[in-house]
Every structure is written in structure tokens, then in C-alpha cells.
Amino acid sequence: MKDIANSQQFDDKLLCVAPMMAWTDRHCRTLHRLIAPHAWLYTEMVVADAIRFGQASRLLDHGDHEQPLALQLGGSDPQTLSEAAQVAETNGFNAVNLNVGCPSDRVRKGSFGACLMLQPDLVAECIKTMCDAVSIPVTVKCRLGVDDQASYQKLAEFVGRVSEAGAQLFIVHARKAILTGLSPAQNREIPPLDYEQVRQLKTDFPALSILLNGGLNDADTVKDVLEWADGVMIGRAAYRHPPFLGELHDVLYPKIDCCDNFQSVLNRYTVYMERELHRGTRLHDMTRHLLGLFRGLPGSRHYRRYLSEQARRGDAGIDTFHRACAEIELKAA
Ligand SMILES: Cc1cc2nc3c(=O)[nH]c(=O)nc-3n(C[C@H](O)[C@H](O)[C@H](O)COP(=O)(O)O)c2cc1C
Q: Looking at residue 327, what is its pLDDT?
């Protein structure tokens, strides 16, 4: 039971699920929406050039039920980004977010992502051109800095400059990016987290919305962070263990009913999967986001193995999913 009377008031704060390439596709977002009705969801990063050349229709595909939904863009050409932002607005996205945090080689060679932290004037020009082109919010996701250019002073200069250009919401992944020698996965683990710098940003820019991202995987830490931040963005912990997202939703929005009853989330996602199967979507494309659902419960290893192996089969249907769930029920009986 939710204890509304005793819960702290965080309902003006934002809960976001992070953009994650190859993970937060429309099926994943549908699951997250069922679990967390009030959360902001993000697409995977979509390269603005790909939108310009009409190569991004799969990544832009979404349903109204996913809202509020932000399209994350990668790019550094103001005109291309502003056209992509217009496409976002026309297609019903509720915000557009510029990626200034991705450290991958591919992105760096395209001169966007985290390396843009070294070019605040260019980012400001991109943001201004995008803000002029659309009426939805244009926001930024960034790191603390890059390589040896990672002082608080530089971070504050970056945020100051880019906010003057029109960005009013910053999601800060609270570690720097190391642009050579580390893979993207290592760049999410090795540079140490430093929440204090993000907290200092909020002190120095009280009028901006400052959201913290990085390493948030327990509700108590999130509650502490929400004492000063305007919201949190959760990545891996939400994906790998979806019930955690439900737990956080209860912390932030205790009055909004969400996944008190996890079975009802599953039932509704099952209906969604049946509909998608009829449209020709492969079962595995949807169930791959469900592998962490029963983590820690008896039978969860069998469930995962069964689903990973069987859902890929060409003839896999909704029964395949039910049979996987039966592994949990058998152990629970
Ligand atoms: C598989 C994967 C893909 C990611 N893709 C993106 C992306 O497209 N855009 C982005 O800004 N960050 C991306 N990230 C980084 C996350 O958005 C987030 O900043 C990072 O995982 C730290 O948050 P966490 O500790 O809560 O996971 C990705 C992370 C993962 C694990």
C-alpha cells in the first residue's frame, strides 16, 4: 500500500528514462510507459542528418501513448538540427534533446556528442537555431566535461552560454567523458561520478531545470538527490530491472496509480504484443525488453533462458511468452 500521508512531496520533479541506443525503442518505451505513466521517455539518439536524408523513419516511429516523449538528436550543424527539430514537433514529440554526452568514436568523428562540450559557442548556435524553429522545449544532455577540460568553471561556462541561447533544461550525466582509449560502456563506468558539481550548477543557475543522471540505482539516493535537483534520469537500472522504475514512480508521484499490480502491467503489455504480432513485429523485438522483469525471483533464470532462445524462432507467438512466464509460476507454486 502506498503511504501518501507520509511520503515526501516530489510531484513537481521530473522522472525520466534515459535515451539508450538499441534499447529504448518504441516497444521498450511502451513497457516503461505502462510502468511509469508520468515519466518522461526518450528515444534512442537519432542523427539529424539521417532525418534530413529520410533514413530515420524506424527511429521516429512512436505512438501517442508514449507521451510525454522527447526525441534525442545527434548533430552539430545548426540548420540540420533545426530541420530535425521541426520534424520532431510535426511528428508529435513533446521536446527535443541535443546529445552533448556521447563519447563514441563514430559520434566524435561526426563532430558531435560529448566533444561538443568543448565548443559552447557552436552548441549555443545550434540551440538558438532550434529554439527559433520550434515551440516545443529544446533541452541538452551533457557530461561534466571531457578529457582534461573538465573543471567546474568550464561546465558552468558551458551551461551559462547554452542557456542564454534558449536551453532551460539540462540533464547532466555526472561524470566526464574520456574521448580516447575508453569504449562507450567504459565511459559509463570508469570516470568517477561527481554529483556535487551538478548540485553546484543548480545553486549557481537556480532558474534552470537541472536533472541528474548517472549511477542512480536505489530509491534512497534518488530521494536525496531530489532534495536539490529538479529531477532524475535513470538509464541502465530502469532497463535492467523495470520494477525499479515503478518504485521510483511511486516515490515521485505517489498519487498516480501505476504498477502497484505488476500483473496488470504484464497483461497490458501482452495485449500490446498480440497487436504488434498481428502487424508483423517479431516477438523477440518486444520480449527482449522483458528479460529483467522477474530478476531475483525463483525461476527467473529459466524464464530468461527460455525467452532468449524461443522468442527468436520464426513461429514464436504469444504462447511462447506465456510458457516462459510459467517457469516463474512453477517455482512460485
Ligand atoms: C546501451 C546504452 C545506450 C545508450 N545510448 C545513449 C544515447 O543514445 N544517447 C545518450 O544521450 N545517452 C545514451 N546512453 C547513456 C545513458 O543515457 C545514460 O546517460 C548513462 O547510461 C548513465 O545513466 P545510468 O547510470 O542511469 O545508466 C546509453 C547508455 C546505454 C547503457
A: 84
* Beta strands, E only, 69-191: 69-74, 95-100, 138-142, 169-173
CA of 45 from ligand 1 middle (Å) equals: 10
Beta carbon of 216 within 6 Å of any ligand 1 atom: yes
Three-class DSSP category at 132: helix
Local confidence band at 7 (pLDDT 50, 70, 90 cut-offs): low
Does the pLDDT at position 95 exceed 70?
A: yes
Give the list of residues 6+ apart from residue 58 with CB closer than 8 angstroms, or none. Answer: none
The verdict on residue 2 lying in a domain is no
CA 34 to centroid of chain Cα atoms: 15
Q: Measured in angstroms, how far is the CA atom of residue 322 from the centroid of ligand 1?
A: 31
Which amino acid is located at 220 in the chain? Answer: D
Q: Whose CA is nearest to atom 5 of ligand 1?
A: 20
Which of 88-97, 107-116, 171-180 has the lowest average pLDDT? Answer: 107-116
One domain for residues 215 and 318: no
- Domain count of the fold of the chain: 2
The catalytic residue among 16, 28, 102, 115 is: 102
Nearest CA to ligand 1 atom 4: 20
The Cα 265–Cα 256 span in angstroms is: 15
Q: What is the pLDDT of residue 328?
A: 82
Mark 108-126 as b/e (b = at least 16 C-beta within 10 Å).
bebebbbbbbebbeebbbb
Residues 6+ apart with CB under 8 A from 207: 168
pTM over 0.90? The answer is yes
Are residues 267 and 204 both part of a single domain?
A: no
CATH number, domain with residue 314: 1.20.120.1460
